[in-house]
Each structure stands twice: as C-alpha cells, then as structure tokens.
Amino acid sequence: MTDVFFNGVFLGETSKPKNLVNKLKTERRKGAVTSLMNVSYDEIHDNVEILTEKGRAVRPLIVVKNGKPLLTKDLVKKLEAGKIQWHDLISKGVIEYVDAMEEEGLKIAIDDSELTKEHTHLEISPLVIFGNQAAMIPYPEHNMATRVIYGSKMLKQGLGIYASNYTIRDDTNANILHYPQNPLVKTMMYDLINYGTHPVGANVVVAIMPWDGYNMEDAIVVNQSSIDRGLFRNTYFKPYKSEELRYAGGIKDRIGVPDKDVSGFRTEGAYANLESDGIIYPEAKVGSDDVLIGKTSPPRFMTSMEEFRVGVEARKETSTAVKNDAEGIVDSVMITESDNGNKMVKVIVRDERLPELGDKFASRYGQKGVIGLTVHQESMPFTADGVVPDIIFSPLSIPSRMTYSQVLECLAGKVAALTGEIIDATGFEKTGEDGLRKNLLELGFRDNGTETLYDGRTGRVYKARIMIGNMFYMKLKYMVAGKIQARGRGPLQLLTRQPTEGRAKEGGLRLGEMEKDCLVGHGSSLLLQERFSSDRSIIPVCKNCGLIAIFNKFKNKGLCPVCGKKSEITLVEMSYAFKLLLDELKSLCIYPQLDIKPKE
Which of 218, 289, 325, 424 is catalytic? Predict the structure, then answer.
C-alpha cells in the first residue's frame, strides 16, 4: 500500500497510486477541485503528495494529449479577440498551474516542434525558462549561463529613474540618471514590465578595439565630449534626519544653534549655514562635516556634583552633519512630527556626479568595467562618415567570456539606428543574425559591422577594420565618489590604539603580508616604517624582572611594582599591540619577561 499525504499530514493509503494521481488531475482540469491543487507520486519513497498550501511557486503550462497541445489556433484567435479570457483556459483544462514537486513527474517540451506522445505538457513560451531580469537580456541563448546570471545582476545595479516621485521621497540610497533612454535592441519583457516609464541606461556608439592599453582588463575608454554633453550624468540623493527625543525626568533634546559653552562645540564655520531655528536652508552648498541640523542633548549620566550646580545646564552637542568626504547642495528640508509626537527634521542633500575615472559601467551581458581614460572627441578614432564612438571596449574580453550576444547586439543596434526601428531580440524568438547581416548590406555597410577607422591624433587609417555599432550601456551605482578613501592622522581604537577600521569611521587601510612584500620589493622602507608604527608606544620596562613598570612623567621617575626601590627602569619603544599581548599573557598567569640589552 502507498501512503497518501495531504499538506504533509497522513491521509490514508491506496493500492493504485498512479490511478489516484491521474483521477485527481482529471478532476482538477474539469474544475471540480481548485486549480491551485497539485498532486504528485514519489516512486522512490512510494508516497502520494497532495498540496494546496499557500506560498508555493506555481507556473502555467499547456496540457498535451497524445502528442498534441490542447491550446489550438482557434482558442488563440478567440483569446486575441477578447471572446475568452485566461481563466477560461484554466477552467477548460487547456492550461494548468504546476508546482516544483508535480513538475518532477512531467515531461515538458520547450517547443511544439519537438512534441512526442510521451510529452505531458508544453511551455507557453521558451522565454519563461528565464526570470524577469534574465528575460531582459537580448539573445540570451548565445551566452554561457553564468554570463546570463551576471547580466541579470548588473541590470539591478543600473542607474535610471527608479520612481517618478523621487523628489518627495527620502530613500536611503537614491540615484537618478539625467538622460535615460529606451534600448534600441530589446526583448518582449521590456514591454511587459512597462520599462519605458523607468529606463536604466543609454544607447551609445561602441568601437570594439584596444586603445593604448587604457581599456585592458575590462576597462573602457569614454569620450569626454560625450560626458560634457550629458552622457551618463547622474544625481545622488542622501537623506539626513534628526529628532527631538524625550527622556525620563521631563528633559529632552533641543533643535537649534548650539551655544559655545556646550560640550563638543564644533568650529563656528561648521554652523555657518544654519538659520535661527538651527536648520539649514534649501540650496545651501555644504561640504564634509558641515552641520545640517543643529541639536543639543541633555547629559545621559549626571555626576553628583553637576546635579547641585545651580543655573548651569550641562548639555552636549549632537548635531547632524554631512558625512566625511561627502559634499553637495541641500535639495529639500522637511519639518514634521515622528510617531511619538516629537519634532523631526529631514534634510536631503543632492550631489551631481559626472562619469570619472574608476566609475563602473556594464553592458547587459555581465561585461562590466571601469573607466580607464576619458579622451576628448578630437583625439578619438572616427569613421569615414565622421561617427565618433562614445565608448571604446576591449575585444579581448569577448572570446574568453563567450558573450556572443554582445557582438550580435552591436550589429542589431547599428541596424536599429540606421533604420529607425526597434529590434526584437527576445530569447529563442529573435531577429536572426542572417537578417541583420542582410539589412546592413542593403544599407550600404559591411555585413559583419566593421568599418575603416581613422586615428584622431594622427589622422592615419587603422590597418585593421574595427567593429563599430550601437549598444545599450548602463552606469552602475558603484562610483569612485562613494569608494574613495584617504587618511593621514585620525581616530584610534581605544583598546589597541591602532587606526579605526572602515571608511565611515575615517579608518586606515590594513597592510597584510602580501602588501608588505610589494613595498619591500619596491624598496619603500620609510613607508613601511610609517605603516607598521601606527601604534608606536614608549613603555617603561624594569631591567631586573623584565616586567612592564610605571613611569611618572612629572617627576621623571620610574618604579617597578615588583622590585620596588631596587628597580632600574628603562624606556623601550614597542608596538602597543605587543604591550597588549604581554598584559593578556599576565592575565593567564604567564610570566612574560623582557630581556633588555643595550643597542649594538
């Protein structure tokens, strides 16, 4: 007997599991039971599973009987005419929803040309084997699967117009591309998701050629004149907020310009842009550490003496300032109330960002790279017709990644730009390569998309013909302005006395063994000395017992707590991390004795 389970609960047993499964499927197609019920027979464990739970991922498939799909041409015509609806096809058993468990026991054909009598279902479209993002990649069937995955990840990171009401929103990390465009080469998915209302990227002229090594290792060379005309220019919005919190005892924060006597008062220049209410005004230009919202807070823990001091309110400065290494213009100021009824101020700072060296770009095929060089138009290569590329992309990354789709898009984009028609490049259902080549020949170009190019610096003809065409490129959210980090002297950690970690904390960059070896190889000994002495300390050590001693700077006198008056103290230069190790060893009752010898 075979066990039957309903939503994971044992229901009973059956001697004919396959008949039971077929009977339930027939009843589902008749509409006797819900269309979202799925049933499957697991031959290995000899179980029948019936599932109606919510939250399961189901997908529609066309039912096949005796090698023929139930969705006929007549039904398709009625559907197009509006005589029948989608739910009519489900109620008639022409289309049914299948979950992952039921799918295991089915034989599904991708295309009706490969149908046999063994097949149980047919895909509605081959495109549905992709997700939303992957279906947006043109000609995906010509690429490696990994590149299709990378391409779909890049689409998520592209800058565009993410929402039409961005001016009244305060999203944590908002970027707006100034001149986004719809792609010349697109798939069916672009129309289905209404991509035209929020495009991500721009159509650019791309030449596939090396350029003096500035576009090696995936880097790209960009036309500076195109940037000056507004190509890939974007604005970054950063929100800052502050709230007047209430504390026990009736005390609370106070938004306003801090007085000079408050603890932690910054320089007067930091508060220069604040108005009388302690809030900055719109369109004010701000830089690193400039105060946006002035605020003072009561001390959290008052000492017993401060409580009895009459007429003095010891407050500390807790203003909201622009983050370190950031700048911009105040876009908007909003004064409102929080859920608790406290006064809340939100300030949004905008920063216009032009493409610069190190900014990340990508095509739709996972071919990502950063700007290696920007060149003015007069120095860029040009065609006989005077067309100058916006981006020069290295050809060496195409054969190794096997992204043939990128080459196809270059051809298709060229045809689209010349004819003024959008090219459909939906996976498995696209305009073929032969058609694109034929169109190029009819338009008076070589069928392989190559042209004779001239060097803008010398005027000479390049010996090789260069492939040049139109492609859809995206500027990604990772920009140099958000990654750049530099530090001289700055904050230290309390425990180790070494520089803090992380860009937000004005931290240093950690040097490991490999970085040290690079510096040794270059002979940068002074730089090494500086890097590895970030926590240099002078520690008093007793010569007799070898333990760390005590030194009084005012009296210029040392004392060992172990040897007492017999102690002979010497000052030793060492890393504070080593001194910390000695203290930790002593806490384990290990006696770390330092053997002090004179310098030779």
Answer: 218
